[in-house]
Amino acid sequence: MSQRFKPSVTVAAVIEQDGRYLFVEEDTPEGLRLNNPAGHLEQGESPLDAVVREALEETARPFTPTAFLGVYLARFLRPATQDDVTYVRLAYSGTVGEAIAGRALDDGIRRTLWLSLDELTACQARHRSPLVLQCVRDHAAGRHLPLDAVFSHGSLSQPLTLMPS
C-alpha cells in the first residue's frame, strides 16, 4: 500500500508600501533565507486567520489582508535530510501597521526588511523558495481575488461529528 500524500499547507503575506515589499530574513536548515512573512496553517484556524497571525509573529506588525493572491505549489528536496516536501501556499496581499513596540519577532526570524521587486529578483539564491518571487510578481502585475475566494467552514473551530448511516 502506498503512503498517503500529505502536502505542507502554508500561508504567506505579500505587503507592498511605496514600491517596496516587506520580507523576513530567517534561519533555515539551508542557512539564512529571505521569505514573505509566512508560516504553517494550524489545526482549527482558517487561512485568513493564519496569515494575520503569521505576519504579526514574524514582523511584529498587524497585518490587514485586502485580497487573495492565489494558491501556489512547489516541491522541495531538503539537502540535509533528503525530505521530499510539497508546499501548498495560500497567499494574501494587504497592509501592515507600525511595528508594535517591545514585541519580539518569532524564533528564527533575524530581521525584517523592505526590498523593491528588482532587489528581490537580484537575490533569488537567497529565497526560501521560488514562491517568494512568484507571489510578489503576481502582486506587482495587479493580481487580486476577493478574500472570500477561500471558504472556511465553521467546522474548522468545532469539528463535525459524523453519524453512522
From TrEMBL:
Its cofactor is Mg(2+). It comes from the Bacteria. The keyword Transmembrane does not apply. InterPro entries: NUDIX_hydrolase-like_dom_sf, NUDIX_hydrolase_dom, NudJ. Its EC number is 3.6.1.-. It is an enzyme of class 3 (hydrolase). The keyword Hydrolase applies. Gene3D superfamilies: Nucleoside Triphosphate Pyrophosphohydrolase. One of its GO terms (molecular function) is hydrolase activity. Pfam families: NUDIX (PF00293). Residues 4-138 form the Nudix hydrolase domain. Keywords: Hydrolase, Magnesium. PANTHER family: NUDIX HYDROLASE 23 (PTHR43222), PHOSPHATASE NUDJ (PTHR43222:SF11). Belongs to the Nudix hydrolase family. NudJ subfamily. Monomer. This is Phosphatase NudJ. It comes from Roseateles paludis. The gene is nudJ.
